[in-house]
Each structure stands twice: as structure tokens, then as C-alpha cells.
Amino acid sequence: MDLAFIAAVFPKLLAGLPLTLSLAVLSLSGGAILALLLSGLRASSWLGAQFANFYVYIFRGTPLLIQIFLIYYGLAQFPALRHSLLWPLLREPYVCAVLALMLNDAAYTSEILRGGLRAVSSGAIEAAKVAGMSRPTMLRRIVLPLAFRQALPAYGAEVTSMVKATSLASVVTLMEVTGLARAEVSQSYRAIEVFLCAAVIYLVLVTLITRLVHWLEDRLSTHRSPALDRSPA
């Protein structure tokens, strides 16, 4: 282990951190929107529920790497797409990677949302109805906050998984942290030091996200009493 070499490699890999974060943020944002649409489809009709279930079945049942390959290499097989106005975007590796990550994240997030909504007790819903709340008000003030609180631990795990999954974008020539690490290994042939540096970067990111999720859980906990936090006089 050459500490001087590791100290020199770290700044090079950190240069890919903005790209890693942008991939994660865009895929999680787009995935959350699609997950809400899938939840709406499930509640709309039997046909919508079947479509949503089929979507989740496909994207959860196939490897993310294969999905990236299908989008990056497969879209070019359709002449209609190659001659469309969208092709200047769809031929970009960054757009293909974000699209694949987003579609994959939507499948997992929709299941997390479904679990959170099912965890809302019928008693809370009945109490809201007795109080005279309209359906939109009940969703905004009762159902969604409780569902979010129940789904937060699972969604936190999904966020960390998606951050680590951005490393797969390197297979379509994107130079994020893993892409830069692979390029450095091809030049220096020192895989242990280089990939160890990359692992530390991902570990720090995941640790920060995990701590943030735990802080949110504590803030949103409905079971803590302010009196319990006071030390006895």
C-alpha cells in the first residue's frame, strides 16, 4: 500500500463525485414522480393496477445492468427513434443512464409507497372522516404524513442503493467515481489502492445518507414525548 499514491488518487476520484451525485439526485427525483404515478394507476382501475404490477415485476425482476444496456444499446435499433427529435438526447450516455436508473428506482419506490400506505391504520382514516375532513385534506394531513413516516426507513435504504447503483453508469462511458477509478487502474495497474479509494468515497456518502435518514426518523417519530427528553431536575 503506497500512501503517497493513495493521497494522489483521491482528488482524481473526487472529481467524479458531482456526476455521481447528479445521477443519484435525478434518478431518485424522476423515480419518485413515476412511483407516485404508478400508485395512482393502482388506485384508478383494475387495468391500471395490472399495468403497474407488470411494470414493477419487469424492473424488479431483471438486473439493472441489463436495463442500462437495453436502453443504451437497444434504443438505436429503432429507426423511428433515431429519426425523432428525441434522438439527440437519447443517444447521450448520461441521459440513458439516468433513464435506466430512474425507471428502476420507480419500481422499488412504488412498492415502498404501497407498503407505507397499507401501514396507515384504518382508525386514523375513520377519525379523519368523523372530523369532517375532505378526501384531499385527509390525504394531505393524515394519510401521506403517516405513510411517509412508515416508508422512510425502507426509502432510505433505496436511496443508498441508488447511490451505489450509479457506479454502473461507468459501463456506458460515464466518468463518475467508478469510471475514473477504472481509467486510473488501466493506467497505473494498481487496482487495490484505486478501488479502495473509490470504496471509501461511496462508504462516506452512504454513511451521511444513513445518518440523515435516522435524524429524519427521530424528528418524525410520533412515539416520542418531549417530556422524555428532559433530564430530571
UniProtKB/TrEMBL annotation:
It is found in: Cell inner membrane; Cell membrane. Pfam families: BPD_transp_1. Keywords: Cell inner membrane, Cell membrane, Membrane, Transmembrane, Transmembrane helix, Transport. It is a multi-pass membrane protein. One of its GO terms (cellular component) is ATP-binding cassette (ABC) transporter complex. GO terms for biological process: amino acid transport. The chain crosses the membrane at residues 55-75, 194-216. One of its GO terms (molecular function) is transmembrane transporter activity. Residues 17-213 form the ABC transmembrane type-1 domain. PANTHER family: ARGININE ABC TRANSPORTER PERMEASE PROTEIN ARTM (PTHR30614:SF10), MEMBRANE COMPONENT OF AMINO ACID ABC TRANSPORTER (PTHR30614). Belongs to the binding-protein-dependent transport system permease family. HisMQ subfamily. This is Octopine/nopaline transport system permease protein. It comes from Bosea psychrotolerans. The lineage of its organism: Bacteria, Pseudomonadati, Pseudomonadota, Alphaproteobacteria, Hyphomicrobiales.
